[in-house]
Amino acid sequence: MRNARRTTLIAAGAAAALLTLTACGGDSDPLAAESGAAESPEAGTIVVGSQAYYSNEIVAEIYAQALEGAGLTVERNFSIGQRDAYMPALESGEVQVFPEYTGNLLQFFDPETTATTAEDVYAALADALPDSLTVLDQSTASDQDSYTVTGEFAEANGLTSIADLAGVADLTLGGPPELEERPYGPQGLADVYGVDVAFEATGDTTVQDLVAGTVNVANVFSADPRIQTEGLVTLEDPEGLFLASNVVPLVSAGVADQVADVLNPVSAALTPEGLVALNVESTEEKRSSDDIAADWLAENDLG
């Protein structure tokens, strides 16, 4: 069974995490609290991580199974959280391979970047990343942030671009809590497009809240299949508020040579349409990331 390939973090790591939490009187490390990771992996083991985001976990599972297929020992540390939680583990080497998104990753390390296109963003990452990390080949698949509205709201207000929102009063923007502090969040909307919004942290229910009318603008990832199934409209971004965010393996510099020949072909095979199709298998067909990844690798002769 494919599930048998899954490995869990070693018990000593979990015990060390628990001991640390006790000693600190509840002042916890978000990575340790969410995943149990507390120490460096065993020699020869590649630790693959993922965000707490179903699409990211699918790509992480593809990476993990591809590496296992090449004969490497893999540990999975999935659903760690968002960038603030998992980046320290990557920089320290506790996690060594992670599916990332070029634009958001660049803005994490260089909030003032002026790069916007896929090529420029990818090139800028080379200078922005710490020496302990590197990116392998980027894919053409993109899952970038967008501002999205319902079809009815777009038609009623004549909306095709984010700039058109400047003429609409009483806007409420929904998205994950961290959006409020992102360069492309409410302040970015005001600075770049002159659009004022109230912000509501909607988290995992963002699309549902948009469809229900609780919010009238939503931060939705561009590969979310519900954009099509719910008849949503992604607003154009002529000023480049959102950077191109192509899927790319972020890896520890120390294992880059070991994993590049395995993961670069994965990136070459992963397309924009293919990523949406993978997401549909998760959200609509309710398939596990393990099964989705195994089938995708087989279909692309990478298994």
TrEMBL record:
Pfam family, one: OpuAC
Name of the molecule in the record: Putative osmoprotectant uptake system substrate-binding protein OsmF
Record keyword Signal present: yes
Cellular-component GO terms for this entry: ATP-binding cassette (ABC) transporter complex
CDD domains, per the entry: PBP2_ProX_like
Keywords carried by this UniProt record: Signal
UniProt signal peptide: 1-25
GO molecular function, one term: transmembrane transporter activity
Residue intervals of the ABC-type glycine betaine transport system substrate-binding domain: 45-299
Domain of life: Bacteria
